[in-house]
Amino acid sequence: MTDDKEHDEASEAREGTWDLANAPYTIEGELEGFQRFGTGVRKSGGWQRTVGLFLVALLLAPIVYSVLHILVTLLL
Length: 76
Known about the structure:
Elements: H1 2-15, H2 27-43, H3 47-75
Helix pairs in contact: 2-3
């Protein structure tokens, strides 16, 4: 009986719990999803961390480009 409980806790720690506090299609749910993704990237290692950081950079690149474009346009 204790082996099953230990196995369940170990698999939960490895896989993480995915019970969302907010509905996934609300702003709060989206932010919670981004937070969980960032936490996963921070805790992972090796190739998974590299792929996660690449995806974060891919997500942030258009935002950074847009902000820089607006600033350059305003300054010139």
